[in-house]
Design a protein that fits this description.
The protein is mainly alpha-helical and 214 residues long. The chain contains 6 helices and no strands. Helix content is 76%, strand content 0%. The chain is elongated and about 85 Å long. Keywords: Membrane, Transmembrane, Transmembrane helix.
Length: 214
């Protein structure tokens, strides 16, 4: 189910809860208005007491729906703010990739050519995208590990993690978010497992040499 459908369902549920709560609030008044003058008030009192006993849990359910709606809206606002921040960061990175003269505006990485630096930045964007999916719980540990297992078959991916793993861990631990730290742990473990199998696939080995023909 997509986000739009989830919001629509939550809105309908919350609207229904509000209508139910309103009905509970006006029922005593309605009973008083429609009751005939000669009504058996003892019987009406019994009905009202029964209504009162039932209205408490129903009101609690309705209020819980309102609270759930507010919590959901806060969560969605936080997600939207995080996505906006990540989008801004991606745009700055893409600008640096398109205009290499601005690569020096980012933190220095020693011993790399401009081409290698651009590859590192692009690889970091890939991992950052996975990081977002993991934090939003679109991925579990098993899926993250599977992604990294394939990812670290490449030499460029390994170089990226060798250069940036310490920064990823520093930021994750500083945030105090255990899920961020767990993501870095999974990446570290996957990198170590891949490195133990031998060298990664270098860029020049990714594609067939066209000069050799078919």
């Amino acid at each position: 189910m997509d986000m739009k459908s989830q919001r629509a369902q939550l809105f309908l549920w919350c609207a229904g809860a509000m209508v139910l709560l309103l009905a509970l609030l006006i029922t005593p008044w309605a009973l008083e208005q429609v009751a005939p003058t000669q009504q058996d008030w003892n019987r009406l009192s019994d009905i009202s007491q029964t209504y009162g006993a039932l209205s408490v849990p129903i009101s609690a359910i309705a209020l819980s729906g309102v609270a759930a709606s507010l919590i959901y809206q806060v969560r969605q606002t936080n997600i939207a703010n995080q996505e906006a921040q990540r989008s801004s960061h991606r745009q700055m990175l893409m600008y640096a990739l398109e205009h290499p003269e601005f690569l020096v505006c980012w933190e220095p990485v020693s011993g790399m050519s401009t081409v290698e630096m651009r590859r590192l930045i692009y690889t970091n964007m890939i991992v950052s995208n996975w990081h977002s999916d993991y934090l939003l719980r679109r991925w579990n540990d098993r899926e993250a590990r599977a992604r990294f297992s394939v990812h670290f078959q490449g030499a460029v991916a390994r170089t990226h993690w060798e250069k940036t793993a310490s920064n990823w861990r520093t930021v994750a631990e500083a945030s105090g978010d255990t899920r961020r730290v767990r993501f870095v742990d999974i990446a570290d473990e996957s990198y170590a497992a891949a490195a133990a199998t031998g060298p990664g696939v270098p860029p020049e080995a990714y594609f067939a040499d066209p000069s050799r023909g078919s």
